[in-house]
Amino acid sequence: MVLDKLGSTLKxxxxxxxxxxxxxxxxxNELVKDIQRALLQADxxxxxxxDLSQKIKSRIKEEQTPSGLTKKEHLINIVxxxxxxxxxxxxxxxxxxxxxxxxIMMVGLFGSGKTTTIGKLAKYYAKRGKKIAVLGLDVWRPAxxxxxxxxxxxxxxPCFIDKKEKDPIKIWKHYEPxxxxxxxxxxxxxxxxxLNEELIEELNKITKIVQPDETLLxxxxxxxxxxxxxxxxxxxxxxxxxxxxxxMDGTAKGGGALSAxxxxxxxxxxxxxxxxxxxLESFNPQGFxxxxxxxxxxxxxxxxxxxxxxxxxxxDMSKRFLKGEFTLIDLYDQMQAMKKMxxxxxxxxxxxxxxxMNIPKELLQNQEVxxxxxxxxxxxxTREELENAxxxxxxxxxxxxxxxxxxILEVRELLxxxxxAKKMAKLLKxxxxxxxxxxxxxxxxxxxxxxxxxxSMMKGKR
Length: 462
Fold this sequence. Notes:
CATH topology of the largest domain: Rossmann fold
Helix content: 55-70%
Radius of gyration: 25 Å
Distance between the termini: 28 Å
Largest sheet: 8 strands, mixed
CATH superfamily of the largest domain: P-loop containing nucleotide triphosphate hydrolases
Shape: flat
CATH class of the largest domain: Alpha Beta
Strand order of the largest sheet: 3-2-4-1-5-6-7-8
């Protein structure tokens, strides 16, 4: 996960609250010091850290504990809300209009990952049913056009480039008749080693003729606290509406870039969380902090689930599951959906409560290997066997093992997993999903989660 060290420290801090008998002055001071230390280690500006810790401290001392919450839960809620506010507060999405095309212009310094991000952004919107095209106006970097072309192929979208032309305005005018065919046009621009007069002049010219509906600044997480100055300069120069922070999966501390962007009011719209074309996430400060604290991010989880399985299939599967019907085909479909959702470790951290369990990464990686093995085994089953696992006798199990190149033991392990899932399906037979969620809340299954996280869960469920 991004900001692993920060997340681990904050989880330890919350665990300290949970273990404490009383919420007293000593606990509050320890809590604030732990948060300060964690944020400073994540490269967050000292003044910002001080301001945040003062807000947390004053709220803890001044606010009365709301009815229905214990002092510990209220303390956790304050930490959650203030950290979310610190990173931007509410989610700031790009509001697409009906205008064709909606133009998104990408700006940033050299090496920030701008061209790679364009490919990811194109894929992000293409998966949501939009007709996308990308345009290359970076005429300075020799490989820029070729790289954009390759990323467009990965995203499976058209790419407008001219490798011989050195005037970006001429390239724009040459392809202008094509733009109206698309819902969104994503535009690449040149970067520099620093925001100098030459770059400002070029950006101003491009902005004037393109008239973008949204201008996004791409910033690398490894630049730390200098992100604040950079974001402010770009914001003043070309009216940046939002920021994309890249390389959040690397060794960079990342906290400096995230917090610095928030204070400039150039809100973070997306974060890059990996090298693959799908590794781009819409940035939600509340969900992001939820993951850091081990509370999960249901909105992101639901988003991933929608990408992995269409609504009709998901509804059909849930109906069968609540009827107590569960076959090896359902298990196979679930495994396929899990694989599409990304690495198991990333999925687990989005599930409320799972992030606090500190499951070793090695164990999750081992489970991913098992999922791949089970896929081979299921591919070796007949349709009849997939629909009725009860007919799997020793001879059939041996045939499946040979056909998949796996062991009999692995086949039996898969069947054991299937029987456990089927047993769960029978327990849930006839249950009302909304009542189940309410019972979970009453029974303490969601105890300790901030109120707005519980509301998010209930809203997402409906």
